[in-house]
Amino acid sequence: MNFTEFDFKPAIVAAIKKSGYTTPTEIQQQAMPHLMQGLDLLGLAQTGTGKTAAFVLPTLQRLAGEAGKKVKALILTPTRELSEQVHENIQMLGQGTRLKSCTLYGGVSKAGQIQKLRQGVDIVVACPGRLLDHLNSKTVDLSSIEVLILDEADQMCDKGFLPDIRRILKQVPRQRQSMVFSATMPKEIRCFVEEILTNPVTVRVNHEKPTATIKHALFQVAQTQKTALLKHILQSEPMTTTLVFTRTKHKAKNLARQLQQFGFKATSLQGNLSQNQRKKAMDGFRTGTFNILVATDIAARGIDVSGISHVVNYDVPDTVETYTHRVGRTGRALQTGDAYTFATREDARMILSVERSLGQNITRKKVDAPLSNQDHNASTAAPSASTDEKRRGAPVSRRKTKGKPKQQRSNSFDFGLSAS
Ligand code: AMP
């Protein structure tokens, strides 16, 4: 399935393209056709599945062309962080629609929020407590709401927000489209959900957990050290057949070339290859001419090679599902396999989502030997990678090590992922 099948308005199509989304995730494929028809929906899906865009895109589609001064969509979330995340997703996918959104949550001044509301917003993303505050002081009006969304309903229940939400619902029109998203459906919220939704469609994304025979390990590493780290691991461990995933075609091609220069039997599989080249790469990997295949997710679809000993996430995947798909290439049919993930500081949130989905913490690994960058040249990273890192603010450990000889740089850094 492709995003073009949804018949989104041109501004939304352009934003999807710009965001880099190519294929709808499973929850998007299941939920969006119903939501685009205006139906109520119960979505059983957790963070990392692409659930935010699953409700944001149909909402933008419905409201695009109606941008104005009245709040037409309300999204309730259990935490400020989630409110911000949803708001960012709306801004990214709604650019070009002229729809405005704002967040309302506690812990920050109300004045700024009131000013935004006065200027006119179409979509409010709020935590229940602060929204009630605004309703009590009549600084927000929910009488024009057409779309109501509860995100992470189970978390809201855990946090004791249900009475607040009931109060909020009294101020929202009954005639509306409603959606509830929740990772689980405990008894306490089942009746509550029935109160909110009318004849809902239920969709469920079952997280298929990777097989228990896979060992997961995480290396916390700066972007610029990834190739040196990969080289080190390939040299120091028996890795019979290794599948390496990169985010872009450019990186896949350059990384394979660099590994060849280091003396490894590596090749790449990426979208720029002709059918013939693709076949050659696949056959070579299958028969052992190459024991390392560097691929992008799209190119790797359908790879069915038995006996892959290692999967390396050179770049962290965008969704939990993709992680599951990638690492599922190893450890098949009760063979054991190792899944190594190279994570930078920016990947912390996705790693937590993956761990939540796995139901376990991923073992942190460190390389004690100094990583040599000598063979590593800038061409492996996408041309803009180092510039991007500078713009986002290079990790502290990197900034501190500036000027030191390359070999003495720290091989990893702790980006504060919980180990508990
Ligand atoms: P969520 O489950 O909504 O928190 O989304 C998890 C991550 O998946 C976010 O970084 C989204 O930007 C990303 N995402 C959502 N939809 C897609 C898609 N169709 N293709 C690639 N990434 C996506």
TrEMBL record:
Residue ranges, compositional bias (Polar residues): 371-386, 408-420
Keywords carried by this UniProt record: ATP-binding, Helicase, Hydrolase, Nucleotide-binding
Species of the source: Candidatus Electrothrix aarhusensis
The family this protein is said to belong to: Belongs to the DEAD box helicase family.
Entry GO terms, CC: cytosol
InterPro entries registered for this protein in UniProt: DEAD/DEAH_box_helicase_dom, DEAD/DEAH_RhlB, DEAD_box_RNA_helicase, Helicase_ATP-bd, Helicase_C-like, P-loop_NTPase, RNA_helicase_DEAD_Q_motif
Protein name: Superfamily II DNA and RNA helicase
GO molecular function: ATP binding; hydrolase activity; nucleic acid binding; RNA helicase activity
